[in-house]
Amino acid sequence: MKLNKELEALLNNQINMELAASYQYQAMAAYFDERALEGFSKWMSEQSKEEVEHSNKFYNYVLKRNGKVEFFALDKPKMDFNSIKEVFEATLAHEEAVTASIENIHKLARELGDYGAEVFLNEFAEEQEEEEEQVQKIIDKIVSLDVDNNSATLYLLDKEMGTRE
Ligand SMILES: [Fe+2]
């Protein structure tokens, strides 16, 4: 099936959105590095790498469908935050926006009867549920351990965050 132009545009937008997420998460890693929070920084760097992988999957899919890949300019990421909680709330908001975008592409693929694109997108729908759940759990820990005001629990959570592979 020939790749529909509107669908191609949305897939290209998604390539850009995943790269923007990667850029933003690396900026958050820098925020943590400035505060000597190596575990949080490691977690964000890993998250950043994952987003590049997501972007590459969309990139390869556009090529596979004989489409044209289009790169956009990236906005400057947010570099300053008032708390660790704020960083992860921003992460969750970002992931929710990505989820909405993927759902939107999925909707168009369905309308077009592009079953192949639908199958390709299903993997991401599942991935996004996991991402959101994971980030929500971290926010819950940040709140329940009060890590923004407690250096002992901050130290412990930073260690735990650093175990991410
Ligand atoms: Fe992603």
From TrEMBL:
<feature type="domain" description="Ferritin-like diiron">
    <location>
        <begin position="1"/>
        <end position="146"/>
    </location>
</feature>
<dbReference type="GO" id="GO:0006826">
    <property type="term" value="P:iron ion transport"/>
</dbReference>
<feature type="binding site">
    <location>
        <position position="95"/>
    </location>
    <ligand>
        <name>Fe cation</name>
    </ligand>
</feature>
<feature type="binding site">
    <location>
        <position position="128"/>
    </location>
    <ligand>
        <name>Fe cation</name>
    </ligand>
</feature>
<comment type="function">
    <text>Iron-storage protein.</text>
</comment>
<dbReference type="GO" id="GO:0008198">
    <property type="term" value="F:ferrous iron binding"/>
</dbReference>
<dbReference type="InterPro" id="IPR008331">
    <property type="entry name" value="Ferritin_DPS_dom"/>
</dbReference>
<keyword id="KW-0409">Iron storage</keyword>
<feature type="binding site">
    <location>
        <position position="54"/>
    </location>
    <ligand>
        <name>Fe cation</name>
    </ligand>
</feature>
<dbReference type="GO" id="GO:0008199">
    <property type="term" value="F:ferric iron binding"/>
</dbReference>
<dbReference type="GO" id="GO:0006879">
    <property type="term" value="P:intracellular iron ion homeostasis"/>
</dbReference>
<protein>
    <recommendedName>
        <fullName>Ferritin</fullName>
        <ecNumber>1.16.3.2</ecNumber>
    </recommendedName>
</protein>
<keyword id="KW-0479">Metal-binding</keyword>
<dbReference type="Pfam" id="PF00210">
    <property type="entry name" value="Ferritin"/>
</dbReference>
<dbReference type="GO" id="GO:0042802">
    <property type="term" value="F:identical protein binding"/>
</dbReference>
<dbReference type="GO" id="GO:0004322">
    <property type="term" value="F:ferroxidase activity"/>
</dbReference>
<dbReference type="InterPro" id="IPR009040">
    <property type="entry name" value="Ferritin-like_diiron"/>
</dbReference>
<dbReference type="GO" id="GO:0005829">
    <property type="term" value="C:cytosol"/>
</dbReference>
<comment type="similarity">
    <text>Belongs to the ferritin family. Prokaryotic subfamily.</text>
</comment>
<dbReference type="InterPro" id="IPR041719">
    <property type="entry name" value="Ferritin_prok"/>
</dbReference>
<keyword id="KW-0560">Oxidoreductase</keyword>
<feature type="binding site">
    <location>
        <position position="51"/>
    </location>
    <ligand>
        <name>Fe cation</name>
    </ligand>
</feature>
<keyword id="KW-0963">Cytoplasm</keyword>
<dbReference type="InterPro" id="IPR009078">
    <property type="entry name" value="Ferritin-like_SF"/>
</dbReference>
<keyword id="KW-0408">Iron</keyword>
<feature type="binding site">
    <location>
        <position position="18"/>
    </location>
    <ligand>
        <name>Fe cation</name>
    </ligand>
</feature>
<dbReference type="InterPro" id="IPR001519">
    <property type="entry name" value="Ferritin"/>
</dbReference>
<dbReference type="InterPro" id="IPR012347">
    <property type="entry name" value="Ferritin-like"/>
</dbReference>
